[in-house]
Write a structure and sequence with these properties.
It is a single chain. The chain is of the alpha+beta class and 319 residues long. The protein has a domain at 104-307: Rod shape-determining protein MreC, domain 1 (Thrombin, subunit H). It contains four helices and twelve strands.
Length: 319
């Protein structure tokens, strides 16, 4: 029975092949007005509207899949561009800082004590809470003392400073952002090395003000502002030197000093993953943080003291 079925199918297949060859020969051999050509035109006339309707009906589905594909590709490209931007920004500020450090090396011979990012261990952490107000001044992360996080550890995102750790528990930490009214960062203009103090601008959520620059300062909009490597009072965080903070957007002058508005480099409204710069027990960051906390004055220096060189912890590692 099986052999008969197989033979029958083979015979049908052979018959169909022979019939196809006959029809093809007849089709190509007859005139355009022949019967086979007429059948073809009639078939296309019937099928074409159906095909066109199917294309129109399926177009939204194709567009939807295309939109999803384009969106995923755009997100991947955006993440890659952000990484490239952070790398280029760091290279630029490092180059400018290195040029300034070389000039300082001509006068000073103790730059081997400078604190750098290589002395720290970046720890990635996820943001699990962000203050629900217009100031966006604090976040909570999912790593704490059990992971080596300390109070005053610098916190960065996309290669730029966003704040410091202000409270730690075993499995979490509170981070005060640079827009918090309690946070102040000793900084400098990356291109010129001119020092100043960065604090939130009063009444302007999300904007920073760098104060106490000399009136002769040549700072211009677009200049990068980085951590200076100094502190000026107890309670400040000692950050590695040269972490990007923001870019100058405008300048003003009052009472013999120049102030500049600084736009943070990182959007602080939608933080997701950040990095805490932690350090090991007995490391240079721990030693210098202890020294700065012990020796720095407990009062806040005024502009006049700043102008006379009042920044006391010239360690190359403060923020």
């Amino acid at each position: 029975m099986y052999d008969k079925t197989v033979r029958r199918r083979r015979a049908v297949l052979a018959l169909l092949v022979v019939l196809s060859l006959i029809l093809l020969s007849a089709y190509f051999g007859e005139a355009p007005s022949g019967g086979l050509h007429s059948v073809q035109r009639g078939f296309l006339t019937v099928v074409a509207p159906i095909q066109d309707g199917a294309n129109k009906a399926l177009k939204p589905v194709r567009d939807l899949f295309g939109w999803f594909g384009s969106t995923l590709k755009a997100k991947e490209q955006n993440a890659e561009l952000r990484k490239q931007l952070a790398t280029v920004r760091q290279q630029l500020t490092t180059k400018q800082s290195n040029e300034g450090s070389y000039r300082e090396l001509i006068k000073l011979y103790h730059l081997d004590t400078a604190l750098s990012l290589s002395d720290y261990r970046p720890l990635s952490a996820t943001v699990i809470y962000q203050s629900p107000n217009v100031w966006y001044s604090t976040i909570v992360i999912d790593h704490g003392s059990s992971a080596g996080v300390h109070v005053n550890d610098p916190v960065i995102a996309d290669g730029a400073l966003i704040g410091k750790v202000t409270r730690v528990v075993s499995d979490g930490a509170l981070v005060s952002l640079i827009t918090d009214s309690e946070v102040e960062v000793s900084a400098k203009i990356s291109a010129t090395g001119e020092p100043g103090m960065v604090q939130p601008e009063v009444g302007e959520p999300g904007r920073l003000l760098m104060q106490y620059l000399p009136s002769t300062s040549s700072v211009v909009p677009g200049d990068y502002v980085v951590t200076s490597g100094t502190i000026s009072s107890k309670g400040e965080s000692l950050f590695p030197k040269g972490i990007p903070i923001g870019q100058v957007t405008s300048t003003s002058e009052q009472n013999g000093f120049k102030s500049v508005e600084v736009s943070p480099l990182v959007d602080l409204h939608g933080l997701d993953v950040v990095q805490v710069l932690t350090y090991r027990s007995g490391s240079r960051p721990e030693t210098l943080n202890g020294a700065a906390a012990t020796l720095a004055p407990s009062h806040q220096l005024g502009p006049e003291e700043e102008a006379q060189g009042g920044q006391v912890a010239q360690t190359g590692g403060g923020g």
